[in-house]
Design a protein that fits this description.
Layout: E1 4-9, E2 12-17, H1 28-43, E3 49-54, E4 58-60, H2 71-83, E5 88-92, E6 95-97, H3 99-106, E7 109-113, E8 118-119, H4 133-136, H5 142-151, E9 154-155, H6 157-162, E10 168-170, H7 173-186, H8 189-222, H9 225-235
Helix pairs in contact: 1-2, 2-8
């Protein structure tokens, strides 16, 4: 079963997360298929930009707890989004949780409808938003991130835009996107690639410096007793034992 839809219109390659029955959770299979689609788009001279979107009411629920990707695979996917020589635009019309926010943060331009919500739910299941911090920490407000990392509270689109997670939001996401995609289509491909390189340099420095340590932290916490309890509680739709 294909987990990533691919269509193209006027130089924009649309990659669609298409596992709505699993809330587009980041399984090992979905991460691998998305990485392959990004590789193809990056090498195709007919692609001017990539639009990353989704089916269903959830953009991505984060890591698939039944079939999670290896931490290094998720790091590789996030870095690929940042390094891709084509701009990547996220189109979001649903909920985004945990690791799914890492995908959003790794994109160059992020646009959402007001129906979208965001939450860093890792601490509530006994893990840490380690790997997704690689694109998030250089691009978002640190004081706000401290609050939402530590509490798992939900953010609406206005707050997500205020802290730097979203570029723009509106009632009609495609209306907001129209001038963005028009601008990318009017830009020279080499100029786009070099401008993106300029904009992502600081993010890639974070990957170079911290990826190994954060990958190890993620692996250690996912194997912990707290994580086992938190994930079991989530799947059983109950509070973990530590809730007071």
């Amino acid at each position: 079963m294909t987990l990533i839809g691919r269509t193209r219109a006027r130089g924009v390659e649309t990659l669609t997360l298409d596992a709505p029955h699993h809330r587009n959770a980041l399984s090992a299979a979905l991460v691998g298929e998305l990485a392959d689609a990004l590789t193809d788009a990056g090498e195709d001279t007919g692609v001017r930009a990539v639009l990353l979107t989704h089916t269903g009411t959830t953009f991505s629920a984060g890591a698939d707890l039944r079939d999670p990707p290896a931490p290094h695979a998720l790091v590789g996917l996030l870095r690929q989004l940042v390094e891709l020589p084509k701009p990547v635009v996220a189109r979001i019309t649903g909920h985004v949780r945990a690791g799914g926010i890492g995908l959003v943060a790794a994109c160059d331009i992020t646009v959402a409808s007001h129906a979208a919500t965001f939450a860093f739910t890792e601490v509530r299941i006994g893990v840490v938003p380690a790997v997704i911090s690689l694109p998030l920490l250089p691009r978002t407000d640190p004081r706000a991130l401290a609050r939402y990392y530590l509490t798992g509270e939900r953010l609406d689109t206005a707050e997500a835009a205020r802290i730097g997670l979203l570029t723009a939001a509106g009632d009609d996401v495609d209306e907001v996107l129209a001038p963005v995609l028009d601008g990318l289509r009017r830009a020279a491909p080499e100029a786009l690639a070099e401008t993106k390189r300029l904009l992502t340099a600081r993010v890639l420095e974070t990957f170079d410096r911290d990826a190994a340590d954060l990958t190890a932290l993620s692996a250690r916490l996912f194997a912990s007793a707290h994580a086992r309890e938190g994930m079991t509680a989530f799947l059983e739709r109950r509070d973990p034992r530590w809730v007071v």
